[in-house]
Amino acid sequence: MNPSEENLEYLRQRMVDEQLLRRDIRDKNVTSVFRKVPRHRFVDPAMRLEAYGDFPVSIGKGQTISQPYMVALMAQVLDVKKNDKVLEIGTGSGYETAILAELGGEIFSIERIEGLAKKAGKVLEEFGYKNIHIKTGDGTLGWQEHAPFDKIIVTASSQDAPQPLLDQLREGGKMVMPVGSRFTQRLLVLEKEKGRISERDVCGCVFVPLIGEFGWGENCAGKDS
Ligand code: SAH
Questions:
Q1: Collapsed DSSP state (helix, strand, coil) of residue 48
Q2: What is the mean pLDDT of the chain?
């Protein structure tokens, strides 16, 4: 049976109350955007109920839409302001892209898998966002034409932060990214001040691999292997 819009709306409000507010999501801009953006529209129609669960959901091609709490946590630490230029690596379903676009600024998002980039682009267009630009490519190289960025968010993990992304971060800018081994990582906030990068560890996490020139190899081999 297809869930009704009322049912999905109820699940969305409950997701905010139980998964975000009961944990440490305190930014009102973030919680109000989560109450509004219909997360179920970013997954396969058969998975609409699962979209509001406290876990990641498959979006095909071996990729996932991140757990709601993780999307919220990254948005909260990134602290997106109205006029920020934001670079997102790993568009995936486009859900986090929509969250960032609602928080403000101009969003530049790169996805490695063309089918996912196209699908996400289509859904985001249906919502009428004018402040989102998506391209298919290797996000570990950044998006030089639009650099520098006030904020950078990477939604796939690598052994360390890709140098081109650090180079394209504005002075005073902030980047959030999962860094670690193939199967377990730490979510880091990297900030650039006077050309130097400082690092803060937010929590442990598990993300799909960032595959590209400055990430894992195609077969997920590390740089030394
Ligand atoms: N924020 C997304 C998460 C998607 S999972 C969501 O909530 O839906 C991470 C995504 O990163 C995957 O779609 C994967 O294909 C993509 N990815 C991996 N390596 C990449 C790279 N080098 N450049 C761009 N995208 C990449």
A1: coil
A2: 95
Cα–Cα distance, 10 to 35 (Å, whole number): 10
CA of 141 to the centre of ligand 1 (A): 14
Ligand 1 centroid to Cα of residue 139, in Å, is 9
Q: How far is the CA of 210 from the centre of ligand 1 (A)?
A: 7
Q: What is the CATH number of domain 5-220?
A: 3.40.50.150
* Placement of tokens 């970013």 in the chain: 42
Mean pLDDT along residues 191-202: 96
Q: Which residues line the pocket of ligand 1, CB cutoff 6 A?
A: 63-66, 71, 89-90, 92-93, 95-96, 110-113, 116, 138-140, 155-156, 208, 210-212, 215
Torsion of CA 191, 25, 19, 75, to 10 degrees: -40
Residue 66 a catalytic site member: yes
**Residue 75: DSSP 8-state:** H
Note the pLDDT tens digit of each residue in 79-104.
Answer: 999 999 999 999 999 999 999 999 98
- Report which ligand 1 atom has the smallest distance to the Cα of 213: 22
Q: Which of 4, 32, 58, 66 is catalytic?
A: 66
pLDDT digits (tens, 9 = 90+) for 12-54: 999 999 999 999 999 999 999 999 999 999 999 999 999 999 9
